[in-house]
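Retro notes, structure queue

What went well: the backlog is down to a handful. What didn't: a couple of records were mislabeled last round, so from now on we paste the full input next to the output in the thread. Example, using NADP-dependent oxidoreductase YfmJ from Mycobacterium talmoniae:
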Amino acid sequence: MVSAAAGATGSVAGQIAKIAGARVVGIAGGPDKCRAVVEDFGFDACLDYRQGDLPAALKQQCPRGVDVYFDNVGGPILDAVLGRLAPKARVVLCGVISSYLTGEHPGPANYVNLLSKTALMQGFNALDQWSRFDEAFAALRQWEADGRLVHRETVMEGIESCVDALNGLFTGANIGKMLVKISEPSG
Ligand SMILES: NC(=O)c1ccc[n+]([C@@H]2O[C@H](COP(=O)([O-])OP(=O)(O)OC[C@H]3O[C@@H](n4cnc5c(N)ncnc54)[C@H](OP(=O)(O)O)[C@@H]3O)[C@@H](O)[C@H]2O)c1
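Corresponding output:
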């Protein structure tokens, strides 16, 4: 299970999980993003968290529970997935974009499932793995060359659009990596 699944981080995390052999379900905001998650990024399914009852959708899509959750958003989505953990599940805390703007990070009520499911929740910081970046890039490049890993970009034009681009991450304006094009490449 991957949240912000249509975004830069989530779309790649989910595709790597597919390459590793997992059945992968995304969570994203809106039908266009959910379509992209399945059709472009090859996830097995995608749940639209803006559309009604996420716990019910999780139950329907993952009746035996979630084994691994790669979380980019925190907040109510994290709480909903914690409510559906499988035994011995692993929860990766990659980001909490739902609460960066307020700076207040509400604790998940369903954390008690970590106890009842003897599950593990752990923070993840890509920079901790700096020594393995060459290894990671080599694998990512190979998967892309093989057509197993795709990426999409949302490009905004001009340096004056930087603020809108940054704000767009919080309103969900992007599919794939949000980029700002400052000028044409030289040479
Ligand atoms: N730990 C690390 O090493 C590391 C490294 C890079 C990034 N990150 C984290 O990874 C996350 C994604 O970063 P990114 O740069 O790849 O951005 P991104 O996923 O390309 O864009 C952010 C997406 O977050 C979703 N979102 C925004 N507010 C939300 C909310 N309140 N609830 C649910 N979803 C919300 C939006 O998608 P929807 O339209 O689907 O809501 C938006 O498109 C961030 O939390 C970032 O801090 C962590």
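Agreed that this is the format going forward. Reviewer comment attached to the example: The first helix runs from residue 8 to 19.
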